[in-house]
Design goal:
The protein is α+β, with helices and mostly antiparallel strands. It is built from 9 helices and 10 strands. Belongs to the peptidase M50B family.
Length: 336
């Protein structure tokens, strides 16, 4: 029961932010919005303000923003179809974009409250490490490598790893004095990365938490983009793909390990949802953007009813794929 409730809250948060993106920009550019809905199926709750109904529906598997003239012809001056191509692209892109923003918010909460944000100031020098052998000490602040400025821990780690063991000239600040040390990084067998044997000092700072969150989101985005590219080139197997049932199972595992594990998993799923929605697959936001780009170069829109038909077929295929993946998830859970 707790797992199901946690999963519903996670899905609800992801859907809310995604639809909030569409809704906010639609309102901003003057589009008439008939309904902002979280969930699908019969209504459980409804609240009307102005021209818009706000509703929560029975099935927590999605949501939508119903706009005038989005999937049908409309002569209303405030219809989606009567807005400029740029405005319509902004409305559609805002959904996936808000998923990336949500991930950054969740990661920032974790960075600020749990781990803190690693800095370039040294908290500990590991015994018998290259750093200890050349006299690097606790509280030293690394400011440069090979005369190139170092601004954060991630950049520091990357520069050391990129050295591939070649000797580095490291600039330090110790007290009020600037000094330099020559260090030869060594490879760590467990991670297969080059290191010099230092542990960073961490700070609780809103600014640093946001910066760390941005870098984490960027890193995960890059990894996931590579994953989807691998699917297309068949370098990634479909065994690594999970559907709603698999995600609920993962949420359940994360919830047993604490709130911050759930937040981290929600951030991962949010980035995943944003990327998937930007793919040019019928019924997804990426496909709608592709139609609008085509309209821009063509000089006139595709017939809304024909476009709606394409998206309907795409949605049917996506639902079929979801059923297949869900079946695989169920087999995996029970076989495990």
């Amino acid at each position: 029961m707790f797992t199901a409730l946690t999963a519903i809250l996670v899905f609800g948060l992801l859907v809310f932010f995604h639809e909030l993106g569409h809704f906010s920009i639609a309102k901003m550019v003057g589009i008439k919005v008939h309904e902002f809905a979280i969930g699908m199926g019969p209504r459980l709750l409804k609240y009307t303000k102005g021209e818009t109904d706000y509703s929560v529906r029975m099935l927590p598997i999605g949501g939508y923003v119903k706009m005038e003239g989005e999937d049908e012809n409309s002569d209303d001056l405030r219809s989606f179809s009567n807005k400029t191509v740029g405005e319509r692209i902004a409305v559609i892109f805002a959904g996936p974009f808000m998923n990336f923003i949500l991930a950054m918010i969740l990661f920032a909460i974790i960075f600020y409250n749990v781990a803190g944000t690693p800095t370039t100031t040294i908290e500990e020098v590991i015994e018998n490490s290259p750093a200890e052998s050349v006299g690097i000490q606790k509280n030293d602040e690394i400011i440069s490598i090979n005369n190139a400025a170092v601004n954060d821990w991630e950049q520091l780690v990357q520069k050391i790893n990129d050295s591939e063991g070649v000797t580095l000239k490291i600039g330090l600040v110790r007290g009020n004095e600037k000094i330099e040390k020559i260090v030869a990084p060594q490879i760590e067998e467990e991670t297969n990365r080059y290191m010099i044997g230092i542990v960073p000092h961490t700070e609780k700072s809103f600014t640093l938490a946001m910066r760390g969150s941005y870098l984490q989101t960027k890193m995960i985005f890059t990894e996931m983009f590579g994953f989807f590219r691998g699917l297309l080139t068949r370098q990634t197997t479909d065994a690594e793909v999970v559907g709603p049932v698999g995600i609920i199972s993962l949420v359940g595992q994360a919830s047993r390990d604490g709130l911050y594990n759930v937040l981290y998993l929600a951030g991962l799923i949010s980035i995943n949802l944003g990327i998937i929605n930007l793919l040019p697959i019928p019924a997804l936001d990426g496909s709608r953007i592709l139609f609008l780009v085509f309209e821009f170069f063509r000089g006139k829109p595709v017939d809304p009813e024909k476009e709606a038909m394409v998206h309907m077929v795409g949605l049917a295929l996506l639902m079929l794929l979801m059923i297949i993946i869900t079946y695989k998830d169920i087999l995996t859970i029970f076989s495990g």
